[in-house]
Write a structure and sequence with these properties.
This protein is an alpha+beta fold. Helix content is 48%, strand content 14%. The protein is built from eight helices and four strands; from the N terminus they run ααβααβαβααβα. The longest helix is centred in the middle third of the chain and has 28 residues, at 121-148. Bound molecules: flavin mononucleotide. The site of flavin mononucleotide has 11 residues, from strand 3.
Length: 206
């Protein structure tokens, strides 16, 4: 860390992260993505099992396969919510367009094959929760690494609805569960800050 950065500078920088959803039509160099992934792997994680797996969606075929896998589950969820066929089609098209248009898209997965299993199902379930928390920490670290590179990004939850279906559609191991997709790129404009709750309202000192 540069000696000139004070703790105040770092807090201000951390607080300046925003989700970016609109991007310039400029590609993200592979070396930049590589550096970000490396930084993501330094996230804290349960038992140091490092259950995260990263899938760079480079080809439009790969993005199409993911869009289709997510679309089937998403359509079923929207149908259950009572949306009309036309509304469902419009939402699916919007969701697929966001995926296709993102300058970089990165599917975050969780590899269940590295997790411990126990006779007690609750304990096994606990390991899965811990792995999800670990993958989420890597995702958060990726978004901060993106910011360090002058990129913007947003975590999109749609793959979670198709967590078992999405990876096989991309030829990935069946033990990989999709957790989310990050859309990344050089931001078009400054995203508006979203309000935060006052710490005093959400904190108890006991
Ligand atoms: C687990 C998770 C799921 C999210 N899912 C979506 C999503 O599906 N679509 C979207 O536009 N933003 C999504 N977001 C981004 C949040 O909306 C955003 O982080 C939140 O509104 C706070 O805004 P900020 O990131 O600009 O501070 C998600 C963020 C997280 C951490």
């Amino acid at each position: 860390m540069a000696a000139s950065l004070t703790p105040q500078d770092l807090h201000a920088w951390l607080r300046s992260r925003r989700s970016a959803r609109r991007f310039l039509p400029q590609l993200v160099p592979a070396a930049v993505l590589q550096r970000m992934l490396e930084t993501a792997t330094y996230a804290p994680n349960a038992h140091n099992r490092q259950p995260w797996r990263f899938v760079i969606l480079e080809s439009s075929e790969g993005r199409q396969q993911l869009a289709e896998a997510m679309g089937q589950e998403f359509a079923a969820a929207l149908h259950a919510e009572g949306l009309s066929a036309a509304e469902i089609e419009a939402q699916l098209a919007r969701s697929a367009a966001r995926l296709h248009d993102a300058p970089a898209a990165l599917l975050l997965c969780l590899d269940t094959s590295v997790l411990d299993t126990y006779a007690d199902p609750a304990r096994t379930q606990g390991e899965l929760y811990m792995a999800m928390q670990s993958v989420a920490l890597a995702g958060g670290q990726l978004l901060l690494a993106a910011q360090a590179e002058g990129l913007g990004g947003v975590w999109v939850c749609a793959p979670l609805l198709a967590q078992a279906a999405a990876p096989p559609a991309l030829g990935l191991p069946a033990s990989w569960l999709a957790q989310g997709v990050l859309y990344l790129g050089y931001p078009a404009g400054e995203p508006l800050p979203r309000p935060r709750q006052a710490v005093d309202e959400i904190t108890r000192w006991v």
